[in-house]
Amino acid sequence: MSEEDFTRLVEAEQRVEPRDWMPDGYRRTLIRQIAQHAHSEIIGMQPEANWISRAPSLRRKAILLAKVQDEAGHGLYLYAATETLGADREDLTTKLVEGRQKYSSIFNYPTLTFADVGVVGWLVDGAAICNQVPLCRTSYGPYARAMIRICKEESFHQRQGYELLMTMMRGTQAQRRMVQDAVNRWWWPSLMMFGPSDTESSNTEQSMAWRIKRHTNDELRQKFVDMSVPQAEALGVTFPDPELRWNAERGHHDFGEIDWDEFWSVVGGNGPCNEQRVAHRRKAHEDGQWVRDAAAAYASKRAEVVA
Ligand code: 3HC
């Protein structure tokens, strides 16, 4: 198959499968994006796991346990998708802990109160849903299929977060203040999850041509803002953006300028929790070496017995 044939197949909305010919660049871009997506799911377990042992009730603890466990499953699903492209999971983990591959900037912010657990569910998983539902139509088959199940679980994540906040907003003045404080800290980093503006995005044009991405960063960010404003009104909170207002002409909400210096500084490893997150992941990987060695020893013994 030639690159033109491949482009025609993708433009005809056909799925590319692991055994199909594909341009090296397409394979590389997919491994990069899916691996970083998987890293984000695994690192993303840390901020909320911080509250499992301190949840205010057994119900909240059970919900949070289920959510964090889902994130682990999403990561494993996505690493499995990278393996269909010839990537090696151990190599990807090494790249992550050595800072040679990225994970989503959002997970480098601290979860300071239990209201953060609700806001992460509502805004971070809400942003993830905006960004990931279109990926159910991405051109690479294994990635698209993985996203269908992941998106179903993300909607549980988003709903449980919003319900947690609804409960707190019906609580004491102190609880309402905790929720608004968390919203103030997480709103702008949630907008940054969608990546740089389209004019600054080095990958969007090619990813859109290959139907890996179905919408641009700015299109999805705008969708998320438009979706979140009525939810904030129903909750009784405000977003920390004096320029946020409905623009009837555009049919969308206008909003203020994102602090791109902060974004690139966090992406570059200088966010509030980058060091802690990567060190924790590195230690978990090192502590698990004996499990991997035991599994490999068992597999080779079984192979001897079976042979
Ligand atoms: N954090 C860290 N790096 C980011 C970033 C972010 N929020 N946004 C962009 N970047 C990086 C890109 O990786 C790229 O660097 P690279 O070329 O070295 O990989 C560079 O900034 C330029 O950005 P582009 O827009 O050109 O990059 P992409 O085309 O890859 O778009 C993306 C970025 C929109 C995040 C896209 O990769 C994507 O849609 N990925 C799949 C979804 C995903 O990974 N979501 C992350 C959150 S997962 C999550 O939320 C889990 C949930 O359970 C909470």
UniProtKB/TrEMBL annotation:
GO BP field: phenylacetate catabolic process
GO MF annotations, alphabetized: phenylacetyl-CoA 1,2-epoxidase activity
Record's GO cellular component terms: cytosol
Domain of life: Bacteria
Pfam family, one: PaaA_PaaC
PANTHER family membership: 1,2-PHENYLACETYL-COA EPOXIDASE, SUBUNIT A, PHENYLACETIC ACID DEGRADATION PROTEIN PAA
Protein name as it appears in the record: Ring-1,2-phenylacetyl-CoA epoxidase subunit PaaA
